[in-house]
Amino acid sequence: MPNVDRRRALGLLTAGAAGIAAAAAPDLWHAGPSRSASASGGHKGGHHGKGPAQPPDPGYAHGQPMQALHLPVRSLQDLSPTAPANAIALTIDDGPHPKYTPMMLDLLAAHGVKATFNMIGEQVVEQPKIVQRIVADGHQIADHTVTHPINLPRLDTARITREIGQAHDQIAQTTGVAPKFFRSPGGNWSQAVFDIAAQHKLICVDWKIDPRDWARPGISHITRTMLQAQPGDILLCHDGGGDRIQTIDALKTVLPQLKQRGLQFVAL
């Protein structure tokens, strides 16, 4: 999606801004009976721990608490602990989609690539088996709001809180894994968005490489842009929001070529 004035609005943020850190295992937004034992580590009612065991964290930090050194995170150098020197992160937005997400998962598996899926809450509820497959295949999951409002920073505080918090819970309750990362639709950020994400113990993640594949600019354009990746870059592409065949076909070239250059794909 388009990235509207986010660089200008965020240029003066420092590492001391509110919400810069996120813990490794955030609680659910809801309290009470709906709390997921496997997502939060315990509760006072509900499922009594009978859900499946929580899978290991697929991120490069292997479950260590992570911290953002700048907001939003635009490269792996903006995160602590430090990623491998040759690491890049593929992030995939706007799913899950019933057709294109399984195709994306098959492609990632064929090339041995782990990625981070930024998922829309209402689609998580509609496609629970695909979301569970994302986790089972060893990918990272992240919050991308409930309804993908491109004007998120301009909404009132209560609506921003619902968009972030409810999506967090929909993901956690579907997978048994509470997300640790949040991406605002369109890369549109504000201090209110940072603060509310921090309340949910989410690290705000942006990107460095954007092929604008959401607009379907052609396989060659997507391929050429993504092949510009350098160590530390966070790459953006999409598995939802429309026909994603161009993205998938481009990645058939991009994934092996970036690996041949010695770059290592990591999940956040």
From TrEMBL:
It comes from the Bacteria. The keyword Metal-binding does not apply. One of its GO terms (molecular function) is hydrolase activity. Residues 31-65 are annotated as: Disordered. Residues 31-41 have a biased composition (Low complexity). The keyword Hydrolase applies. PANTHER family: GLYCOSYL TRANSFERASE-RELATED. This is Polysaccharide deacetylase family protein. It comes from Actinomadura gamaensis. The lineage of its organism: Bacteria, Bacillati, Actinomycetota, Actinomycetes, Streptosporangiales.
